[in-house]
Amino acid sequence: MLMQRPSLVLLLCCCLTSYFGYHAVHGNHGLEARNALHERAELLARELRVLEAERLRLDREVELLSPKHPDPDFIQELARAELGYARPNELILLERDPRVAALR
User: Fold this and answer.
1) Do the Cβ atoms of 58 and 52 come closer than 8 Å?
2) What is the predicted pLDDT for the residue at 49?
3) Comparison of pLDDT for 100 and 16, the residue scoring more
């Protein structure tokens, strides 16, 4: 009976160590969750940099279209790209769209 008590304590300590060790690695707040959180943070940081660059581009375009000092070159570029405007003396070359050719 006297030898049984230390072995039970040792077994209990081993079980508790295993339990807490497993959860330290695989638990909700363990090392795997921490690594996944860091990967997500890096992904969001990259997405934030892309969105900030897009916002800077849009801010620059808005500034070029300001009513006080509009940029005539930028307005002409927009009219050509979005509305399909061209000067009367310009030659326009149309390219075949391979997706349309495949449908025929």
Assistant:
1) no
2) 98
3) 16
